[in-house]
């Protein structure tokens, strides 16, 4: 009997409304991080593919930007209506891309759908954002907000559907056309998402191109027809984009990494704070989120007690469940790709030199899932906590992007602020306290683009999300995707 080999499915670039292979027909393997196995193939694009994608977006710009804001809003609203129909499929692709354990209703119906709706509503507001000024007795001035043209969105591997949505929705609402470049580690969900959107939008308005950043990144960023770039990613990628954009001096949006403090005062609700710090660094994304609360600052009077309670909760049977990331009974997935897995493992080794391990530290599917052979080659890392006596160690200063946290003691509010700000990053912070005055003081004094009090990682369409310092600048909001024009009209003949 001849054994039948299952053919690996291929996904394609989306250019000018069509599914197309790379110009050379070359492909890359996409790896399921829970198993370590190839599950699909994606295009390995070239500069020729870049030219096709950007040209398609540029050709589509005039017609798309000429639509009324109401007409563009209708398109975006119809996308929001459509998302639930593809929820299970998109969720499957996302989790096999990056290993996150995702709730379909919360992630797709609440977050992504609402972003498209919010962008649709924002489109109609752009015309009202200008100002009118009387200039003497015979002239007046006013301002207009206009789209840039072709906007390039560069996505990370940890949250491709969310970052795709928040970049594309507001750029399109403002009248721009879009080219999306997903990470080579997690492109599948974005390619399928682009295919779905292209069925709704006019030809060329949305384009998705897969490839290595080292091969096509500079060509995309430096392309003269690309008028603005938005990146969610690392500092190193941001520096490369900045260098590549110098020749055309285009505006940039950078949402980068973080080493975010999660600060617990002695007057906090302990149960809420413990649940908050666990969710902020361990579940469901294994700490692979830019706003992860990776530094847990605890007031010294409750330091030992709270660490003991966190340990007890994390080691309760069933508190952490590994396995199929499509099964929401499981609470934590793997590290999203092999290079990142090796990086996280190296920080666990470093942490044992710099601090005292409280719990965790084990790695590998063969260790954490020996009874589930399909996962033994996956990139699994156990939730890990280190106690340290100083914020100066590398595990306190460097972004790890994995389920590894450090617990740092502090005595006073002023010291908590000093430690919180003692980092090159400034993306997010959490504060747990019952003192309203302290909550407001901490919000004011922490150098961070987002501060959450008695909650953590509350993001979505309601508020902008951006960083300070090396965490970047700019936000994926509709005003950021418009440029302001000043106009003057003389009303008297002279």
From TrEMBL:
Cited InterPro entries: Ald_DH/histidinol_DH, Ald_DH_C, Ald_DH_CS_GLU, Ald_DH_N, Aldehyde_DH_dom
Q: Which residues cross the membrane?
A: none
Which of UniProt's keywords are assigned here? Answer: Oxidoreductase
Where along the chain is the active site annotated?
255
Question: Is Endoplasmic reticulum found in the keyword set?
Answer: no
Domain of life the protein comes from: Bacteria
Q: Which GO terms describe its molecular function?
A: oxidoreductase activity, acting on the aldehyde or oxo group of donors, NAD or NADP as acceptor
- What region holds the Aldehyde dehydrogenase domain? 22-481
Record family assignment: Belongs to the aldehyde dehydrogenase family.
Could you tell me what this protein is called?
Betaine aldehyde dehydrogenase
Origin species: Virgibacillus massiliensis
Its taxonomic path starts at: Bacteria, Bacillati, Bacillota, Bacilli, Bacillales
